[in-house]
Amino acid sequence: MIDLSDLTAVKSALRAQRIETPSWAFANSGTRFKVFPQAGVPRTPEEKIADAATVHRFTGAAPSVALHIPWDRVADFGALTRYARDLGVEVGAINTNVFQDEDYKLGSVTNPDAGVRRKATDHLLEAISIMDATGSRDLKLWFSDGLNYPGQDDLRDRQDRLAEALREAYARLGGDQRILLEYKLFEPAFYATDIPDWGTAYAHCLELGERATVCIDTGHHAPGTNIEFIVAFLLRAGKLGAFDFNSRFYADDDLMAGAADPFQLFRIMYEIVRGGALDPAYGIKFMLDQCHNIEAKIPAIIRSVMNVQEATAKALLVDRDALRAAQREGRVLESNAILMDAYNTDVRPILADLRTEAGLDPDPIAAYRRSGYQEKIVAERVGGDQAGWGA
Ligand code: PSV
Ligand code: MN
């Protein structure tokens, strides 16, 4: 059993944890078969930010919201940033979109056509200008580029084109801005993807320099992949920059973080704690990247934030001295039991206390339900076009 008599260090680490919400999670979404619209869904970036601020109001742990361009393009990003700050949140990572334009059918920055590559790279540069205007530090890059058929294009040339575009974006970064490079095993390309795995992302980040790091989207791996190994490896190499948390059963399911495999989330967070990377000063961004197609969005995002907090609390409870001793002495069963003891501890009362101490309701979802916010947005957000992912 875990000794819960002195939780001072655990609580202060949990108090410092920040989780970023994605603007697109508040909008309508679905599968390629159907998008089910929901009443009260935001119509503008401002309304998405208001929803993100609501998640922060009830959790106290989600003080920034990632934007996605062009879905969140506005005329005045300075004004949008001030609007967000007035509501108590910051603009987080700027996500680029080079996957929803006719021109990108054969790829964006890896396209065989130099004109298309120019257009895609210009979009990356535009996103950095948006970072300048919003004070955002992170440019998050995900490329859908890839091939459906063997022989369709030259695999190696595409890596050269990718490297060239990344170099240009990297050279444009200013101040403490950085690139978070995301990978994804497959989809929409099925034969070959230009950044299919962490190794490829890592190699490109190494080429770029110290301000380029890898973003691990938990949904972007083959079934059974040991993601905590990737975390440990990248942390050791100083190349882990961020997470896009979500849950998967089969592919890029984008379900609520911690819903499908809370044990995996715990194992990931244990490597973060073990690597000393939980402290916000370390610079890892803990983001959600998920969609709520059949469930109510705001409470689902609150639930996801809580799930990440619970996995983190369990990871913090691991008796690391005892674990290390057992590992060094080769006591296999004991090592495993030490980890499982932490995982099997009910940390919900600890997090409830923490919230109460911070002046929050110990049950954020119940508090949200009682607040009347959902009824208010359903009543007010009538007319106009609901935001969606535009697929
Ligand atoms: C791609 O599947 C991805 O995970 C990237 O992070 C995007 O930014 C996000 O989804 C939304 O398209
Ligand atoms: Mn992602």
From TrEMBL:
Pfam families: RhaA. GO terms for molecular function: L-rhamnose isomerase activity; metal ion binding. Keywords: Cytoplasm, Isomerase, Manganese, Metal-binding, Rhamnose metabolism. GO terms for biological process: L-lyxose metabolic process; rhamnose catabolic process. PANTHER family: L-RHAMNOSE ISOMERASE. This is L-rhamnose isomerase / sugar isomerase. It comes from Amycolatopsis saalfeldensis.
